[in-house]
Amino acid sequence: MPPVSRAPVSRSFKTAPRPGPSLARMSLALQPTQVVAGAAAAYPAIVRAAAAAPPTAPTPCAGWDLAALVRHLLYWAPFLAAAGRRAEPVPVAEREEDVVLAGWPDTLATAHADVVAAWSDPAAWEGTTSMGGPDRLPAPMIGGMVLGELVVHGWDLARAAGVRPEWPDGVLAPARDAVAGMAEQGRAMGVFGPEVAVPADAGLLAATLALTGRDPDGA
User: Fold this and answer.
1) Tell me, what's the pLDDT at 20?
2) What are all long-range contacts of 196-205, with beta carbons under 8 Å and residues at least 24 apart?
3) How many CB atoms are closer than 10 A to CB 93?
4) Which of 65, 146, 188, 193 is least buried, going by the fewest C-beta atoms within 10 A?
5) pTM above 0.90, yes or no
């Protein structure tokens, strides 16, 4: 298979994507209010494994070791939660590189619980919202960005720890669609690598990762 692209996926999730499939229009086994919780459900096991890995462990994100990935997740979680609540985000630090890592497993668990709580409210998926900037976008689109962030970076975190996470198809199908809706723009911006070829029967997680330029069989 082609080499894995190490472009950090999340930067595209923080931009304004072109309108694409929204979770509100998808036929899902899970309702939109449930998919974020479903994506986050894999995190306790992932975090336990990652907590035992060295901070310098490599990740599938370009130029990011485990410490940089964790800082990114902790920095952006308040923005994801605030978008669901239509609230002003309260950053944990001025910059990602300033995020304190002491006690990060517990801090990340609390941060993700807040994101799940925000997007478990049906009102979060209605109307428009933003990621703290001036541009407002359809809430289902932002919800898809949140879902893609949780799945793709959950995989990144797991791979840094040497484990392989799993999610149910009811989570992965809308995650794949959300990533597909922003993939072209992400590649144009250089935050996604070229799509990786995977077999048609490779599965939803592999298809989602391949859209971001990640090799599902890579580290």
Assistant:
1) 43
2) 196/1, 196/2, 196/4, 196/5, 197/1, 197/2, 198/1, 203/172, 204/169, 204/172, 204/173, 204/175, 204/176, 205/151, 205/155, 205/166, 205/167, 205/172
3) 12
4) 188
5) no
DSSP 162: T
Q: What residue spans of 27-138 are helical by DSSP H?
A: 32-40, 43-51, 66-85, 104-119
At residue 20, what is the residue type? G
Beta strands, E only, the chain: 128-129, 137-138
CATH among 3.40.1350, 3.40.50, 1.20.120, 1.10.10 for 10-211: 1.20.120
pLDDT band at 8 (very low <50, low <70, confident <90, very high): very low
Residue 130: which residues within 8 A CB-CB, separation 6 or more? 83, 136, 137, 142
SS3 126: coil
The span from the CA of 140 to the CA of 172, in Å, is 16
pLDDT digit string, tens, across residues 112-166: 999 999 999 999 999 999 988 888 999 998 999 899 999 999 999 999 999 999 9
Please state at what angle helix 104-119 crosses helix 43-51, rounded to 10 degrees: 160
Number of H helices, E strands in the chain: 8, 2
* Residue 217 to residue 118: CA distance in whole angstroms: 33
State pLDDT tens for residues 55-108. 999 999 878 999 999 999 999 999 999 999 999 999 999 999 999 999 999 999
